[in-house]
């Protein structure tokens, strides 16, 4: 089960930080940023699994096969439940580890779409939307269970949304975020940069 509250082992005066998640199919890029929006510091970058690697079908639970929807069934319910349970623990464990060292002020979520699946007529597009909704809600619920403020942005909107709170043009923000990952031994791809923007927006929100 996901923990119900922040760790009590946090030292007084611990630095403030924020988490960004870019949610993908069955996993999320997770980034922790501390400092200020003008002088941020990258602390952690991880891939956090939402679906159980030992249950391959849980990565696309609404897919029966390529482009084919899995109808309502016990099998679908088992897969969805597997994602909810595994993802809740996986995400909560990541957050809890950060909360032992930082005052985590919130978690920003980046998603591909916020369209209500019920409004989509095309079966193939709808099942992708259902899966996106499932993974998003698992992460959001896990963050809320750790008493974190959450906000959600679409990938295509977040840089524009950041121009006010973070200051500067979209191009300037992209340059700043690219520099944030400079010197990392691991990858610093688009999903990590988007998660970093979300984290910076949560930092800005906490200081507003």
Structure, described:
- The chain is an alpha/beta fold.
- The protein has one domain: Ribonuclease H-like superfamily/Ribonuclease H (Nucleotidyltransferase, domain 5, 2-Layer Sandwich), CATH 3.30.420.
- It is built from five helices and seven strands.
- The strands form two sheets. Strands 3-2-1-6-7 form a five-stranded mixed sheet.
- The longest helix is centred in the middle third of the chain and has 26 residues, at 74-99.
Number of helices: 5
Order of helices and strands: EEEEEHEHEHHH
Mind telling me the C-alpha Rg?
Answer: 17 Å
Architecture in CATH?
Answer: 2-Layer Sandwich
Structural class call reads alpha/beta
Helix content: 40-55%
Strand content: 15-25%
CATH H level, superfamily name: Ribonuclease H-like superfamily/Ribonuclease H
Topology, number of strands: 7
